[in-house]
Structure prediction request, 569 residues.
Amino acid sequence: MLMQNEHPRTEIDCANHETGNSAELEYKKLAKSLVEAFGNNHMTEARRLASEIILDMPPAGLECSEQDGFLESYLEGEDLDDEHRDAVVGIVEDYRVIRDAFANYASELKHTDSRTASLLQLGDADPIPDDVWAKEIAIPPPKLDDLIGTFSTKGKGPQGVGLETAISTKGKGPQGVGLETAMIAGAITLARLATTPYHNAEAYKEAVFAKNFLAPICSIIGADALESALNDEVDAIAGRNIGDNMSGTELSRDIDSLMDEADRVVALHFGRKNSSDSERFDFAISNVKGIISKLVGKAQLKSPIGISSPHSMFFQVGSVHTEAGNDLKLRARGKGRGSYLRKLLKNLGYYKTRAEKNDEHKDVHPIDLYGLTMIADSNEQLAKEYAAAVVNALKSDEIIPYPSPGREKEVFIIKGSKEFQDTIREAVLAEIPDVDMELFSFKTKKGGFTDAKITGLYETGDGRVGFAPFEMQFSTPDARLTARIGGRAAHFLFKLINTYGEEIADLDDEYLAAIKDIWSRKQDYFNNRDESSTEVCLTDQSRRRVEDFWRRIAKRRQHARDLGGTALQ
Prediction:
């Protein structure tokens, strides 16, 4: 997406505004559809209008005057009150901040000798060497200070309030970009990834933007569906490029067949790629309800994502009434084709040896094609419900406990305090005294962290596909909050550490406070459905950018009047 241009914003934005060709029209159509899908119940007219403006915005000039003029003229044609108008301006200005942050990231890399630096300076249509994607870490680690500083409202600086020491983005203080803008940027980037030729530099740049700026924020605030969709599309791009890199080799043919297999499996369970058929998830919903009914209780489900848009992400939320009479919250997701392919490659040992052949007797297919999370009120309730599910799994005729690749026999994975482990062990032994304890893995975790999983296969009763591989996790609100924002235990940090190493997550308390600030603000966006309030939940930093915009417009208007007066004279 970057072009050879001195001004970072121009570099980043210019590719989004090519007109008059079918590819661009396809991209914009898909982007609008994905914004609606992932915004779902949280879309408002201001957010919808802002996304349309972002898609149509011309490339910025050196002083952004062309973009300012475009935004002003666009708003003049809309019947908006001042609050809704300012909400639109705030979202658009926040989007500029995100793109500027990424442009600055790319610009700073110019001063390094890293390969990424050279790749980000290529023209959009230039090819990316295929071997770039053949690495397990094809994309450099994010700069967490820039990432956090872009979205947090916490800190001290020209645009910040609060903490003693600044969480700074290039000395400007925290930028406080709104979470609605993060969602819109994520959906637009997803569309760009899906429609850009996978071997072009533009695809790589968009992938870096998605992985370094958007996916981590989605992880923090719980936008799991959008995070998964972004990661999945990047993984799919990587897979296609890996196949090209190994063209003509036996491994290339293997990868091609693996991609076909990933497409086949995902399509069987979650519908054809990019289908908008409203019934494409019916089979998956039936499997989710079936798994839960055999292990826990009766489930009520709904989709947090609009299903009329052509996307392949299966996500469901809801509740389950257990056999013990408890009501648990639940979340369910399906594995995407890109993620499925990446898991296959890792399980085959591709990233370790490039040519290692898997033991033909070893199963390499991911067990978590269906990922299910049961959320209990407390660790005590969790332990009892998990133990009951274990007993049901061992007694059920339609559930086959089955280990994930890399494990020998363990299908019941329990992590937590010694007391937590003992509660589960005793409850299971009370029901099944002769249970095979080699099926269990117990690991002590401190700090109140708990995690309990079941992996297995569900007999679907469908002649097309007999089994649905699943991983069911039991958690609590406190544990999930810890996973989102709890320091080094935070889910997004855990994933970053696993990918890039320990040095990525050397964060002090101030950064952790900024992360908590980002998470807490999700209540403004995700939980409040009242139109009047959702439209005006701009951060203080966003409001300052709105004020700056109108000051620039007033200055432009005054300049135009001055020129008119001079002409008359």
